[in-house]
Amino acid sequence: MVTQTILPLRLRDARVRKNGRVIVGPVDYELPADGFTIVIGPNGAGKTTLLRMMHGMERLASGAVEWQVAEKRARERQAFVFQIPVMMRRNVLENVAYPMQLHGSSRKQARAEAARWLELIGLAEAAERPAPVLSGGERQKLALARALIRKPEILFLDEPCASLDGRAMREIEAVLQSAHSEGTRIVMSTHDMGQARRLASDVLFVHRGRIHEDGPAARFFEHPQTPEARAFLQGDIVE
Amino acid sequence: MNDILQGLLEAGRLVVTLDPDLIEISIRSLEVTLSAVLISSLLGIPFGAWLAVKRFRHRRAAIAVLNALMGLPPVVVGLVVYLMLSRSGPFGVFGLLFTPAAMIIAQVIILTPLIASIAHQAMREMWAEYHDLLISLNTTRWQRIKALVWDGRRALLTASLAGFGRGIGEVGAIMIVGGNIDNATRVLTTAIALETGKGDFALALGLGFVLIGLAIAVNWLIHILSRTEVSGQW
Description:
The complex is a heterodimer of chains A (239) and B (234).
Chain A: E1 9-18, E2 21-31, E3 36-40, H1 47-55, E4 62-66, H2 71-76, E5 78-81, H3 92-102, H4 107-121, H5 136-148, E6 154-158, H6 166-181, E7 185-189, H7 193-199, E8 202-207, E9 210-216, H8 217-222, H9 227-233
Parallel strand pairs in A: 3-7, 3-8, 5-6, 6-7
Antiparallel strand pairs in A: 1-2, 1-4, 8-9
Helix pairs in contact in A: 3-4, 3-5, 4-5, 5-6
Chain B: H1 2-16, H2 20-53, H3 59-69, H4 74-85, H5 100-136, H6 141-151, H7 153-168, H8 172-178, H9 188-198, H10 201-226
Main location (chain A): membrane
Protein name (chain A): Phosphate ABC transporter ATP-binding protein, PhoT family
Organism (chain A): Aliiruegeria lutimaris
């Protein structure tokens, strides 16, 4: 049986309003089916809200977020990794197994698959430890394994490497590149320009709640089209 | 001071000699209160969790009412249950008045709001923590409640133990609906009230110490069985 892809994702005149103020939008954008998209922009530009909006976690004030399939089916094939990962009050293995159990796998099946993922991300020895006592890097790896265990078609990540040391960041990036090479579409926000250059195939530059510029990473980094993007890349303060 | 010492001695005597009356009313106390706690927990915990995850129009008012119901006067509850179960009442046909079942019903009414309210508080904090993850995982409301209740089970145990604490020491409602009938509905608290009325303070105090000991023992046993305060647990 051929499974229909949920991509591309289309945002049509989408806006998110909070406390009476539009904080993201209007956004008209089509996210292509392939690629590793990096979302960058100054603090408070709306990167997190844009990702949450794409994932369907923000109520739209207007417009639409459209997938190739019905929203319910599309939601089942997405995953999200938060900047501060949520650690369920269970052990590491059960945290990773949880999404599989939600969708009908038996406990045994889910635990076996979770154990395989823990091996892959180097957390096998921590399997029986309570998740909330893990270090920052370990938490983020756990969150990544939990997001990838159901092989999502698209994975959103909100600054997953913020406040991680170099080694943890390298390990996370390796997992992301491996997932991407196996066909997972990735959309990730970051503050780290080095990381953006290493990973991005295309870039979304967000400024004042709008997608200010988008395109292939090489072109964006070499020839930014707007003064704001140029200033941002030069390390100037962008208001 | 002398009375307290005599009470302690009397408590010791009752326990050491395994006084049959003491054993009987202690078992009945536990049966009534543990049954009421179990039923109240089955009702109150899911309700508290549901209230934490569900948004509806009069939610704040519902929480305020629930919190207010924690302070329900047991005597009033006893009176209402009495009227409901008495021969002329709507449930008189079941013949439950002056039976342990009536005492359990009264205690369920008293304990459910208490357990639900404490459970709601614990679940609300967990929901704030879990919200983004469970929404992102596209969980149903039932799956959310299940995850919160399972992961918060140790906090919820506190809610049930608070219910047990209130139930085991409760006297007003069960005195009215149970009638404090010897060999039928007499429990530790109603026996204490009776002995105090008769002026036998040593025996009343002795039963009081047994009651306190029993409450501590049940709490301790539940903590042991549920492995709280063990490293690596929550």
